[in-house]
Design brief:
Elements (H helix, E strand, L loop, with lengths): L15 E10 L6 E11 L4 E6 L5 H9 L6 E6 L2 E2 L12 E4 L11 H12 L4 H14 L16 H12 L6 E5 L7 H18 L2 E5 L3 H7 L2 E6 L2 E6 L1 H4 L5 H8 L1 H7 L8 H4 L1
Parallel strand pairs: 3-8, 3-9, 6-7, 7-8
Antiparallel strand pairs: 1-2, 1-4, 4-5, 9-10
Helix pairs in contact: 2-3, 2-4, 3-4, 8-9
The protein binds adenosine-5'-triphosphate.
Keywords: ATP-binding, Cell membrane, Membrane, Nucleotide-binding, Transport
Pfam families: ABC_tran (PF00005)
GO molecular function, one term: ATP binding
């Protein structure tokens, strides 16, 4: 008797699937289009950097994925369901969002900021919600004594960490990051990249990140999607995208900043060089 033949594995469901998206703002003579015939598929485990010139619609695309802005045409599917169904209670159990400036509630303590989505859901007693929030604070490298601080008393790096803990409080499989390292100094930026890389790997997250920062892009991305001419013109690993002949790619990846980000880090001078 011949050995049973294993059935071919079912193709993995993409975490995000955008098909023939069009976004038009305004009406009549004021109408202007941001996206046209935009397609993008993000597979489980990908850490995708979304890049493009200013005003090309990167933030609007994140809002479509969050279900906060309805497309004019086309479909946006997240975890197998239309993105517009994500809104409302429990949305943050499917998609976590880290806004550029953290967007913490200034009148709430760190702990209450992180626990907020759980309070709103009302499925856990408040004390248990706070315990979950404490676990998330530890996960992002904050200490128990930071829990009762107010946002105004935090450094920029700590605000990002609290906002990240808040985005992860309901264990979403998909995390969206808008300029995660903006406003951080080079050290803070490296530390935050290390944290994101570790969480991406250990939690098995799928991540979509808008960034203008090439160091962050090279440090983290498994793939890069380039938004230009109203759609995604490339979706591939960074080293491949960087070679494309396109004015934006040329400027972004092969301009001065790009070449600096690609260069190996300078090594400390040897004793012979110093003398
Ligand atoms: N709700 C809205 N109503 C009208 N226009 C909007 C709305 N949201 C965004 N826009 C416009 O859509 C375009 C794309 O905006 P978006 O913020 O997505 O660009 P971006 O690629 O994120 O830019 P940047 O890199 O500068 O942050 C811009 O012209 C913006 O003014």
């Amino acid at each position: 008797m011949s050995a049973p033949v294993a059935a071919p594995a079912a193709p993995a469901t993409p975490v995000v699937e955008i098909r023939d998206l069009a976004t038009v703002f305004g009406t009549g003579a004021q109408a202007f289009s941001v996206h046209e015939h935009l397609n993008l598929t993000v597979q489980r485990g990908e850490l995708l950097s979304l890049v493009g010139g200013s005003g090309t619609g990167k933030t609007v695309l994140l809002r479509h994925i969050l279900g906060l802005t309805e497309p004019t045409r086309g479909t946006v599917t997240v975890l197998g369901r239309p993105a517009r169904e994500l809104g409302g209670d429990g949305a943050s159990s499917r998609v976590g969002m880290l806004f550029q400036h953290g967007a913490l509630f200034t009148a709430f303590s760190v702990l209450d900021n992180v626990a907020f989505a759980l309070y709103e859901l009302r499925t856990l007693p408040r004390a248990l919600a706070q315990e979950v929030a404490m676990v998330k604070l530890r996960m992002v490298g904050l200490k128990p004594e930071h829990a009762l601080r107010m946002p105004a008393d935090l450094s920029g790096g700590m605000i990002k960490r609290v906002a990240l803990a808040r985005a992860l409080v309901m264990d979403p499989p998909l995390l969206l990051l808008d300029e995660p390292t903006a406003g951080l100094d080079p050290n803070g930026s490296d530390e935050f990249c290390d944290l994101l890389r570790e969480l991406h790997a250990t939690l098995g997250l799928t991540v979509i990140m808008v960034t203008h920062d090439l160091d962050t892009l090279y440090a983290l991305s498994t793939k890069v999607a380039v938004l230009a001419e109203k759609h995604v013109i490339a979706h591939a690993p960074a080293v491949e995208v960087a070679q494309l002949e396109h004015p934006f790619v040329e400027h972004f990846f092969r301009g001065q900043r790009g070449l600096r980000a690609m260069a190996p880090a300078p090594t400390a001078p040897t004793r012979a060089e110093e003398s």
